[in-house]
Amino acid sequence: xxxxxxxxxxxxxxxxxxxxxxxxxxxxxxxxxxxxxxxxxxxxxxxxxxxxxxxxxxxxxxxxxxxxxxxxxxxxxxxxxxxxxxxxxxxxxxxxxxxxxxxxxxxxxxxxxxxxxxxxxxxxxxxxxxxxxxxxxxxxxxxxxxxxxxxxxxxxxxxxxxxxxxxxxxxxxxxxxxxxxxxxxxxxxxxxxxxxxxxxxxxxxxxxxxxxxxxxxxxxxxxxxxxxxxxxxxxxxxxxxxxxxxxxxxxxxxxxxxxxxxxxxxxxxxxxxxxxxxxxxxxxxxxxxxxxxxxxxxxxxxxxxxxxxxxxxxxxxxxxxxxxxxxxxxxxxxxxxxxxxxxxxxxxxxxxxxxxxxxxxxxxxxxxxxxxxxxxxxxxxxxxxxxxxxxxxxxxxxxxxxxxxxxxxxxxxxxxxxxxxx
Length: 422
Fold this sequence. Notes:
Layout: H1 3-10, H2 13-28, H3 32-39, E1 43-52, E2 58-69, E3 75-82, H4 87-103, E4 109-116, H5 124-137, E5 147-151, H6 157-171, H7 195-211, E6 219-223, H8 227-238, E7 242-248, E8 251-254, H9 261-271, E9 281-283, H10 285-288, E10 295-298, E11 317-319, H11 328-336, E12 340-342, H12 344-347, H13 350-364, H14 370-395, H15 399-418
Parallel strand pairs: 3-4, 3-5, 6-7, 6-10, 10-11, 11-12
Antiparallel strand pairs: 1-2, 2-4, 7-8, 8-9
C-alpha cells in the first residue's frame, strides 16, 4: 500500500473506531457471534433535505442519523453541522457514543447525527428551516424512549430548541425530553454548558493523583478554544495549573508565563479568536501540540495526534476533550513514550452525563441546582475513572483499551440478560 493510502486509512474515523473496538474485544476473548452483534450498527438513515433559501432558490442538503446500539437504553448523541460530515464519520461517532455511555454507566445507547453544511454560509432563517426539515424527516426515529439528540459541532441550545419545538408540534404536545442541551427556560439543566469541560477537569484531577503529580505545578496546553476547551482551560487555571498555550480555527498562541484565561475568554467574545491576545505570541497550530507541558487537551476535531506528530508530543497526560483526536497508530507511540492518555469515551463523557441528568429531570419534572448537578457529575466521573483504571492495572492494557473493555463488557452483559430477539 502506498504512503498516501496508509495516511488516508489512519485518518478514517470509522476504521479507527473499529480498530479500537477490535483490540478491546480480543482482550476480552469474546465469542465471534457476540462480537458481530455488538459491533454492527442498528440503523443508519440518510435524508435529502430540500430547503428554500432566502433568495427564493432551493438547495438540497444531506443529513444523517445513525443508531449504533440501543440495548442499554435510548440512542444518545449529538447532531453536528459541518461541510465535511460523512456517513462514515457519523457511524464512528455513534459507536463511540455507545462505549462512552457504557463507560460512565448511564442508561443510554449510542447514536449520532449530522448535516453536510457550512452553517456560516446560511442565514439564521435558513438554518432554522434546515433544522426543522431534518427533525421532521427523522421524527419517527427521535423520541425520549428511542433516540435523544444533543448539540455537537456548530449546533447549540437554539438548534435544540428548534428540534424540540418541531418534534413537539408533530406530537401535538410539548416533549422537553426529546433533546438535551436545551435553554434553561425550555427544561435545560443547570451546568450542562460547562459539563464536558468540567468532566475533563475531574478526570485530570484523578489521573494526576494516581501518578503522583501536583496539578498546581502543571503546565497545560489546550487545542480548540470552543466550549469544551475554554471551560477546561478556565477550570484548570482555577485549580492552580498554568495554561501556556491554546488554539482555535484561526490560529494558536502561547505564553510560558501563563495565559490569563478569563481575560482570554473575553478577548474571544470581542474578536472571535484567540489570535492577538495581549501578552501572548503566535505559534504554528501544529507545533502547539508539541509544546513542553504536563497536560495536553486536544479539544478540536478528530485525527489531531497521528503517527506523524506523536513522537514529538511531550505532555505526560493527554485528556481527550474531542472525539477521536488520537489515531490508533499514534496510540502505540504514545504508550511506548509512557504518556497517560485519558481516552475520549472517558475524558469527555461529562457532557453526556449531564445530558442524562437533563433527560431525567425533564421526565421527573424536578430540577436540581447547579451545585447538585456538579456534585453528581463529579461522583459519576470519579467512579468511571476508577473503574477504567482498575481494568488498566489488572489487565495491563492502556487506558483506552481498558475503557473499551469495560464498556463492551457492560453492553455484552445487558445483551446476555435481555437475549437476542429472533
